């Protein structure tokens, strides 16, 4: 977002213009539509076989805060929690992702 936020906002401008003066319901609907557009664009991009990789700077930041997006990290978490706890976490994470505006 820091590097391409302006371009992203410009691409979504038809959905996001004049939202400051709108009600919360209308803002949420516009954000939901924008999220759907992003999801569709990412899905099409991934269908082309594109890979997603962290940049060196982002990887350093994520490592510094304790987030390791690698297989070893996932194994650590799987061993730390029971399968039931992992399922609860996955459902809560999915629920939060569905509720959060972009």
3D structure, described in words:
- By secondary structure, the chain is mainly alpha-helical.
- The chain is built from 6 helices and no strands.
- It is extended and about 50 Å long.
The number of distinct helices, counting runs of at least 4 residues, comes to: 6
User: How many whole angstroms does the radius of gyration measure?
Assistant: 17 Å
How far the N terminus sits from the C terminus, by CA atoms, comes to 11 Å
The proportion of strand residues reads under 5%
Shape: extended
Q: What share of the residues lie within helices?
A: 55-70%
Order of helices and strands: HHHHHH
Query: How many E-type strands?
Result: 0
- The stretches of 5 or more residues where confidence is low (pLDDT under 50) are none
What characterizes the major β-sheet? none
Mean pLDDT: 76
Task: Give a concise summary.
With 102 residues, the protein is an all-alpha fold.
Keywords:
6 helices, 102 residues
List the helices and strands and how they pair.
Elements: H1 5-11, H2 13-16, H3 24-47, H4 56-64, H5 71-80, H6 83-99
